[in-house]
Structures are given as structure tokens and as C-alpha cells.
Amino acid sequence: MTTVDRNLDQLGDHGHHDEGSYLNPKYGPIATVWDWMTTVDHKKIGVMYLFAVLFMFFLGGVAALGLRIELLEPTRIDETGNLTGAALSFLAEGETVSQAAVGQAYNRVMTMHGAIMVFMFIVPGIPASLGNFFLPLMLGAKDVAFPRLNLASWYIYVFGSLFGVFSILMGGVDTGWTFYTPYSTTTTGQPQVIAMVLAAFILGFSSIFTGLNFIVTTHKLRAPGMGWFDMPLFIWAVYSTSIIQVLATPVIGVTLLLLIFERVLQIGIFDPGLGGDPVLFQHFFWFYSHPVVYVMILPAMGIISDVLAVHCRKRIFGYRAIAFSSLAIAAISFLVWGHHMFTSQGELAAMVFSFLTFFVAIPTAVKVFNWIASLYKGSITFTTPMLYVFAFLFLFSIGGLTGLPLGTLSTDLHLHDSYFVVAHFHYVMFGGTVIAFLAGIHHWWPKMFGRMYSEKGGALGCALVFIGFNMTFFTQFFLGTQGMPRRYASYVDEFTLLHQISTYGSLILALGFVVHLVVFLHSLFLGEKAPQNPWGGLTLEWETETPPIEHNFHHEPVLTHGPYDFDEVVPPGWDPKDYPLPEPTPGGHKH
Amino acid sequence: MASIDTHQPALPQPGKEKVPLWQRYTHGHHWRNADDEFDGAKIGIWLFLATEVLLFSGMFCAYALFRLMYPESIAAGSGYLDWRWGGLNTVVLLISSFTIAMAIRNVQLNQQFWARINLLITWLCAAAFLVIKLTFEYIPKWSDGKRPGALFDYPFAQHAHENVWWSIYYVSTGIHATHVIGGMVLIAWLIYRQGKGAYGPTHYTMMEGVGLYWHIVDLVWIFLFPLLYLVH
Question: Total structural domains in chain A?
């Protein structure tokens, strides 16, 4: 059966008729590498970003496993100064060490984990990889608005990440990813601290470039006929994310610059000894770093909206509510930074920030309710992406709800700086963002690389990740409420069992990722060729070839239906194997 | 969104050898037309200006905090600055803002000679700003010991926290001066490209963008000048 999709027709005078897949190699291996290194194609840049951020995820993950293995048993130093317990393997066991040295080694690995995961993985993560690849495709555009800026953003990202890795190779930083003064301006290791702060500063430019590019692309390059409310919800989410990136990142830029001046020249703005104010650093830092929490989670929410609708083949419930809640989250996110510093400000300010923190939970809850309502009477298929959507709904809800006792002043008094906080934000950042990232990668993998993967392998990986994650972090809620403080290299004997469950869970989690890696490698080399639209998605990226041609579409796509018009376009009982979808009903496009 | 002005007198005839670069310009293939490309570039520049405002807003916040904490030290610190040098620099930047705006108008009207003159004046004003800043402000003050933070070494200080004042002063004017240097590089690029005939009535995106950037550099100074020089 030949194609019936009008967007695949070889019509039009300006069509790109004879183009092959964007993945087709050029004239030789060197030319191919050069082609990728100098490409301005958003798809290639998206793929390069995907591999770069996943590599950083691997590095940060290794650091996390190091922490968990160290915490398998409480570290003790006997009378002769010998280290016992399952110490960090890179601290020679049995050697004469001080408790302080153990703590510092632990802090360095912890900072490595935090700084890599935040600045080099999760902030650029979804927007720069999947966003770069799919935002123009979903809009029906040939590329992002500023393709060269897009490539520059990737190089700046790599350059900044090199600074971070360089800092670690020089011995690492023990400040924590938050770089709080005065600790960060006085701790040992001048070159490493400056390198790590510079890394975060440089990565900020890459973040701004990506965000700026996406905003202009969304405004100016939508396909003819695509109004704002015809856009897939992923675009709304990435657009809101971009606003935060553009408006918040400059503030961390000037903050980190001041921190470097403080460290090198002792200008004293954050140093109380010279008349400065360390709390000012905290305000500056969280004015960026709280909104950036939503840079991490908003694109994940966008993925969930789209993947969920496609895999339960049902119009998303409350399209406008979800779209506007993305913008609302972006706006309110700028007003809640004070909840990271309840103890370093006045009571009134703390109460106001507590209230605003509850306020930002509302648009988030709107989304969760709408997703669950969308499932009602849907034709749910239990594909790997959909399994990850369910994992997201479960884990993100726990993460969101455990945020409420932390936003409440009276309970936060007990819980702050404990493992409860660690568990909470890992449920949001991992249970939310990483799980949604995995949903998105599985959902779009066939489109990106033209190959299907093993569904059984994907499901197995998902199950391992889900079980491992819950073992690792649910235990930490208990540890936190029982009084285990965060950022400690050791603990009292009573916590041993829960810490051990957590550590074994992290190993299961790592195993889950190994399974995914194997499944993806198998798919790349031996996978079955992917059809154009394996899931029956209605957004524009499914209306071009798999993998997409170099200029995305053979000719400028025309919007014939909305992104969620499954009722009009997909007949009951449709099976992915029945591809292609029947011709959409003209005029069936509405919300 | 402004669209490109097409009502132009006396366009040069497209001859065989002398078609200027700006007439040969074709828009990027991923844009539908040159107007969309121009509008997109302008949105991009405005977003970039927003990031600049937020970058400096950090310094303005720090300024506000320390002015609240140490009002006397800030007032005393401001007293060391000569408002006449600051005022002169304000005038210099205002002139440069005017000339770059004129240069854009000139290329829109294809008055290449005047565009060139105006761009050169803009660049010279930027250089003059830096020369004034260095020779009459940074260098004498630094050698007096009026330095930031722990480097502060001024024997006649009246207040305990004048070092904090100098930190704010050097960092905020220093970031601003860095932007002036960046502007000079960009304007030099414009002068070079304009000499090649790259800008004309139907294509002047780069000039428009640099012009907007130069205005924000000017505008930041308009805020810095009273905050730093005119405190009582």
C-alpha cells in the first residue's frame, strides 16, 4: 500500500525529493565526522546532545554508586587511626586516615554527582536533546530559528563540561553543587573550585542559547495553519522551559562571576569578615536554581502529555489547562526561591515563601489530574514508553506530595537537611524527569534512529529501574524522618539496614540502565526497521519519513488535524501494524 | 514587528559587476521569507537584551542591599567619584547611541557614506568612554588604594565598609565596560562589513541587532551613573 498521508506526497515545486535520511553517511569516514562536527542540522545536534548528556549521566551515576557503596556500612576509624567499614574504594582501606579526610573525600564525590547531574545532565537534558530534535519537527519547520547558534550551544556545552571534568581530575570540589559561601570561598583547592564554578558559568550560555532559539522558533516557524493551541503540549512545555532558561540563567551568571572574584580577589561581597553578606549569595543562587528546578521538570511533563495521549490513543483531557499550567509554573517558579532558605530569613518572609510554594503546587496538580483523566476510557497499550508514563505518574506524585511537608514551616523544621529532602527531590528529579526522559527516548527512538527495539527488553529495563529506584529512595524517606542528616559519610548503627536496602536498590537501578543500554545497542545494529509511525501519533514528526530526511519534510507540511484528534483520525481497533493511518477527515480539526 | 522599508529612492541598478552584497543577500533556507527572518532575529535580540537586564539586575540588587546596610559608607564612597567625569561619559554614550541609530537609518536609505561616518563616530565614542574611565577614574583611584574588598588600602577612609562600596563600583562598572569592549568589537565588524556593501535598504539585520545591543549598554550606564555618582 502506498502512502496516503498528504504530507508525504512528492508534490510541490520546492520539495526535497531525492533526499535521504539525515543519518546517511557522507562521502567517507572523515567527511562524515566533519559533517557532524560542523552540522547546523537540529536533528544531528539533538543526537550529539543526547549522547553528550547521557555520557554525563553515566559519570554522575558512577559517582552516585560510589556514594551508595560507601554508605553500605558505617565508616569507623579505630584507635590506631585505621579505617574500617565499607569505605570509598578510592580511599585505601586500612590506611591511616582522619575522619575529616574521609568526610572530604565523600563530599568531593557527592559534589561530583550533584554538579554533573544538575549542570551537565538534567538542565540541558531533555530540551537540548529531544527538544532540539523534535521541536522543529513537531512545528513542521525545517530547522530551529538560529541553526548556527544551536551548534555553538553544543560546543559551549562540551567546553563547559570539559571544565567540570577537568576540575574533577584535578582532585574535585567539596562545596556541594550549591557552592554556598563562605565555604566555597575558603575551602582548599583553589584551581578546582574556580574550574567548577567556571564550568557552571559557561554552561549557562549554552542553556540561554538553546532557550532563546526555541522561543523564536516557536513564535516564527510554526507550520501554516498551526495556531498556538494546535501545538503539541511538548512544545508548550519546552516553550515555558525556555522562558525560564532565558530569564533565570543570567542571574546565576553574575552570581558565579562574583563568586570567582570573591575567591580570586577577595572582593568581600559575600564575605561577612569584609562587610559582605553570605545570605545574598543564597538569594542569588536560589533565584536561579529554584526556577531551574522547573527547567528540569517542565519538559518532562511535556513528554508525558504527548506520550500518554499517543499510547492510550485518546484526546488529552484539558489541553488548555495543561498548556496554561506550564506557563503558570514558569511564572510562579520565580517567586518561591526563599523556601530553600527558611532558616536564613525572617519569619514573615518564610511564611510568604511557604504560601507561594503551596501555590506552585496547584498548576502541577492540574497537570497530574488531567493526565489521569486522559487515561479514562482510553485504549491503553502497555508499550515501554507507556510503562514509563505510569512509572512517572506514580513516582512524580510521591515526589510532589512529599514536597508539601517540606514547604510547611513547622514540619520542615524537623525534616530540612535530612534524607527526607534527598528522597523528595530524587523522586521529582529522577522519578519525574529521568523517568519521563526514558519514556521520551523510547517513544521517539524509532523516529530518531529508524529502528525498533525489543519491547520485552524495554519492559524488563523499566521494571528494574522502577524497583531499584523505589528501593534506593523510599528507604531514604524513613531515614530522613528518623533523623539521618544529608551529606554525611557515615551514620549510627541503627540506620544500617535501611542504608543497605538503599544501596542494593541502587545496584538494581544501575542494572536496569545496563539492560536499556543493551536493548538500544541491539536495536541500533540488529533492530527491525521502524515504520513511519509505529505508535499512531498525530503530531507532525510522525508525518515525515523514518528517520527524517535532511530537510525534515519533502515539502512544507500542512496541518490537517490537531495533535490529539485520535477520535477523528484513528479508527477503532487500529493496530500499529495496519500502518499507514487512513486519510484524516478534512475539517475534523478542532479542540 | 517592524517590516523592511521598501520605499527607497534611487536604488542602484543591478548591473553586471557592481551588484552590492546587500542586494545579493538571500534569506536562510529554513525561513519562509526575509521578513520572517528579520522578525525572528529581532525577537532573538530582544530576548538577549532581557538576559542582559537580568545580569545587571543582580548587581543592582547587591547595590540596593549594601546601600541599606551601610548608607554612610555608600554615600562616602560616591563622594570620591567626580560626577563630571561620569556626566561626560554619559554624554559620550548618548551621542554614540544617537549615531548608531542614524547609521541604521542611513543604510535603510542607502546613504553608505553617512552610515560609515556615523559608525566610525560610534566606535570612537565607545573608545573615548573607555579612555576616560581608565585614565581619570580606574587608574587614579586604584593607585590611591581605593580598591575592592580585601585589597582596600585607602588611608583616609571615613567609614568601616568603604571597601564594599568599591567592590560594587568596580564589579558593576567593570561588567559594563566589558560590554562596551564587546560593543566595540561588534561595531568594528559592522564597519568592516559595511565597507564591503553588506548592508542596505533590504538587508540590515546585523546593524539593527548591534544597534539594539548598543542601546542597552547605554541604558545600563544611564542607571549606573546616578546610582554611583549622584548619591548624597
Answer: 1
In 3D space, the residue among A591, A376, A425, A19 whose CA is nearest the CA of residue B29 turns out to be: A19
> What is the pLDDT averaged over residues A187-206?
93
Q: Do B167 and A145 touch (CB under 8 A)?
A: no
C-beta of residue B221 within 8 angstroms of C-beta of residue B176: yes
Question: Taking CA atoms, what residue in B is nearest to A287?
Answer: B58
Amino acid identity, position B134: L
A585 in a domain, yes or no? no
The enclosing H or E element of A76 equals strand A76-77
Grid coordinates of A122: 538534567
Contact check, Cβ <8 Å, A267/B170: yes
Using an 8 Å CB-CB cutoff, list chain B residues near A268.
Answer: 148-150, 163-164, 167
- Hey, is the C-beta of A502 within 8 angstroms of any chain B C-beta? no
- The CATH number linked to A120 is 1.20.210.10
B7-56 pLDDT per residue, tens: 555 555 555 567 899 999 999 889 999 999 999 999 999 999 999 999 99
Does residue A586 belong to any structural domain of this protein?
A: no
**Distance from A426 to chain B by nearest Cα, in Å?**
30
Residue A591 forms part of a structural domain: no
- The CATH superfamily label for domain B29-229 reads Cytochrome c oxidase, subunit III, four-helix bundle (1.20.120.80)
Model pLDDT, residue A437: 98
Residue of chain B minimizing CA distance to A250: B55
**A3-7, A94-98, A232-236, A556-560: the lowest-pLDDT one:** A3-7
- B136-162 burial by CB neighbour count: b if 16+ within 10 A, else e? bbbeebbeeebbbbbbbeeeebebebb
Integer Cα distance of A512 and A434 in angstroms: 13
Domain span at A293: 6-578
Instruction: Return the domain boundaries, chain B.
Output: 29-229
Instruction: Say which residues have a Cβ less than 8 Å from residue A227's Cβ, sequence separation at least 6.
Output: none
